[in-house]
Amino acid sequence: MTQHGEKRATVGTTWEPARRRLAPIVALLLLAPWAAECSWGGFAGSDMLLVVVVLAPMYGGAAVLIREVARRTGGGWPVIVLLAAGFGVFQAGLVDQSLFNPDFLADTEFADFSAADGTRVPVLGISAQEAVGFLGNHVALSICAPIAVVESYVSPARRPRPWLRAPGLVAIAVLYLLGSLLIFADDSGRKGFLASPGQLMGAAATVLVLIVVAALPRWRRRFPPAPAGAPRPSRPGALVLVAYLGVNMLSGWFQVAAAVVVVPMLAAVLVRWSGRAGWGQRHVLAGAGGALAGAAVLAYLVPPYAPASPEQALASDVIVSVIAVALLAGAYMRLRRHDG
Predict the structure, then answer these.
(1) Predicted confidence band of residue 191 (pLDDT cuts 50, 70, 90)
(2) Which residue of 60, 147, 280, 308 could cross-link 313, Cys pair, CB 3.0 to 4.6 Å?
(3) What is the Cα–Cα distance from 73 to 166, expressed in whole angstroms?
């Protein structure tokens, strides 16, 4: 988006009713933590509301800020994905430090379920499997899927535009920092663990590199669409679903190897398809739907963090499925209404 376009969009939002202007921001603040921590069955249905409220400043704040940066700079989805990866490293490496803490899941139901200890990389002090799981889910579920779903509910004119002015951006940034500090200060999460200076510096350097790459001008260049038509939206949706389940249903070094092969191939195919004529928001929503649907399926196969009876676990998984279907169906209906 050009500078003139941004100015015109900002002026336009000042005349919109506050409820209409703030609705997608609030929705993104709430959807991001749900997708990040609940969509794959991590918490019981009775705990989901509390989880969403407590984690909204961190997850939701990051999702809003990343979207605003991408839309203001005109970088689009490449910038969103790169900044989402940066958020994933920042969150798992510097905030809750789950990337380096070997006991992060020790008091959860994943302690005996996961094969993460078999993929420890001594030099880096990380589990390769946990790195794939933590960072991959932060990109797919914490940031990209919530943005794609919420943008599908708004009109086509509002999707590429920023939703916040400078005071709002500052408020969300402060909210995000406070939310992150809250999680860092919660010793029950880190269990007294602190990463080494070398690990912290490595994580910080990785975040900085991803931010620098996201700032490259190449993401703001626009090329004419390829003459070949875009596939039906069901194809990217099915591809993301199969890739998500295929990687996450493996464990140990098999999962790591699958991620190293599958994720770049998936990204290459999606980039190629997105450059074709006819690619639109329905394709984007389908990709997000594939990730959310994959997480909802996975919820039936993995335990929640806390012990639960089979009946409680099943009820929570059904709640996840119902919410995911309702979100995606509602977004699809809005797209039909707005986009025809």
Answers:
(1) confident
(2) 308
(3) 14
Give how far Cα 258 sits from Cα of 82, 100, 149, Å: 21, 22, 27
C-alpha distances in Å from residue 221, one per residue of 2, 73, 78, 176: 11, 11, 11, 30
Share of the chain above pLDDT 70, in %: 93
Neighbouring C-beta atoms of residue 298, cutoff 10 Å: 19
DSSP letter at 277?
E
| Coil, helix or strand at residue 47 | helix
Matching residue, tokens 């969009």: 9
Buried b (16+ CB within 10 A) or exposed e, 301-323: ebbbbeebeeeebeebbebbbeb
Element (H, E) at 229: strand 226-229
Of 73, 104, 67, 62, whose CA–CA distance to 207 is shortest? 62
Q: How much is the pTM?
A: 0.92
